[in-house]
Amino acid sequence: MKLTCLSISGGGGGSYHSPASHLLEMEGLRFLLDCPIDLSALAAFAPVPLTGGEAGLIRAVPRYWSPTAAAAAKAGGVDAVLVSSATGMLGLPFLTRLPGFANTKVYVTEVAARIGKLMMGELVEMHREFVRYYGPDTDGLPKWMEGEKLNEFPSVLQKAVTEDEGNGLISLMPLYSPGNIEECMQTIQPVKYGEEVCFNGIFMLKASSSGLELGNSVWTIKGPRASITYLPSSVFVSAHALDFDYSSLKENDVILFSDLSSLNDMDEDNEKLDEHAMDETDSSLCRHSVLRDDGADADEKILFLRNSDDITEEIERISFICSCIISAIKSGGSVLIPIGRLGVILLLLELISETLHSSSIKVPIFMISETAAEVIAFTNALPEWLCKSRQEKVSLLTLESWSMKLFSGEALFGHVELLKEGKLFLFPHLHSKGLLAAWKEPCIVLCPHWSLRLGPAVHLLHRWRADRRCLLVLEPRQLNETTAVARLRTKLFVSSGQYQLAAAEKQSDQSKRHLLQRDAVDPDRLLPALQEKGMMISLQVNALF
């Protein structure tokens, strides 16, 4: 067995929008584990419309980066692709349009395949705005990719633009077409959770719920000599998706995973861990592992893991975002929410609706997306893919009334009621006729993120950027300096016009840092972040960093 990580350091691998990817070789066959697209290269291109001041940005039709597709092509091909999420398949058309990859079999859950196709189509549609502005892309290399001009652009492009002589592949590639998407979908074999699929006569493949998002999966690969579980980003208990399936972790030889808990989450978990601490050199450790124990108390141990407050943390995070949104609306500002995880957006819509109703605030909510109507309808017809609490809402219905419920569009999520009450509006484009008639500020707008370089988000940012009352909701991982300060476990506040740091009563236990991946204090980012705020800081680094 041979395992190769295909994510490029610094390229965004490991985040939700650009998940990690691996090439696994077993029994003479190659499995590609996820094929995402890396959108970090978009940051080097000036958004449309141009407003001046974009020095150092490329004014041209963007090119896209899929390190996974490039690495797979360089390796000489793959036999199968296992996709764990909708975002993990956004780079597939780059791969399947290459010679020799058209017949590669792709396995993904039915829901992830449907959502992934919608996301790919939406990306293509928003990319057309650049094409309309700059004209069609050239067949050969654009001028900005030639020779010494490349050195004038951000390092992400200098790193990405590499020509693989053996394959004639340029890592920065023109975006795929709708036809490429259809060809890609022809290679996909959709599966359900728990369904076993035989591949090549010797491997059994099975997808299980990861709990993170609708249709996201943990993959189990059982071969003649080894059993491997590919564990992507997961949560034990979800407020919307089907809970994590622990059976995927049992009776295996290898668990391949890359995401660990954040530092802030570790402290409480470490206290629980200490209560059940064991000697790491004790040979009984693996025999009595929660993942491997087949004893009668296995269910109790799983329940212990499920008490990790995953739902509580997620709801608290969404509640905080909602409180910020309401504050912005009360001040007269509008709110822009780039769409990330679909399930989180659905939960946020429910909470926003409840909060607006209880506060007697009436503002329109717009979802501006080429696929908005289809996504909203689609997510209301997936009862078997949802968490148990949502399934229980309709568990007492007979088969006939169940069918009537789905046919009539009764709500599995709160957004259906928002539509019926005329509080949520769905439009494909900013220039839609109906949108111009319904537009009213302040308002709440949800639209595709695409790194804030494509689509409606660009135009709305230009519209509201000068209004301090308006709010832009971003994911924390995009705010590196803020994250660097937050990991210090302090409170940053302003007093008399100056920034001050107040130390937390209890600092994080850095002795558990070997359990973390990316969330320890980073001195190289922390000091510049604080110095920009006028704070003269010195940092003593000990052996624990």
Automatic annotation (TrEMBL):
InterPro entries (UniProt xref): Beta_Casp, Integrator_9su, RibonucZ/Hydroxyglut_hydro
Major localization class: cytoplasm
Any one GO CC term of the record: cytoplasm
Record carries keyword Disulfide bond: no
Domain of life: Eukaryota
Domain Beta-Casp, residue spans: 345-488
Keywords for the protein's UniProt record, in alphabetical order: Cytoplasm, Nucleus
Gene3D superfamilies recorded: 3.40.50.10890, Ribonuclease Z/Hydroxyacylglutathione hydrolase-like
Protein name per UniProt: Beta-Casp domain-containing protein
UniProt organism field: Panicum miliaceum (Proso millet)
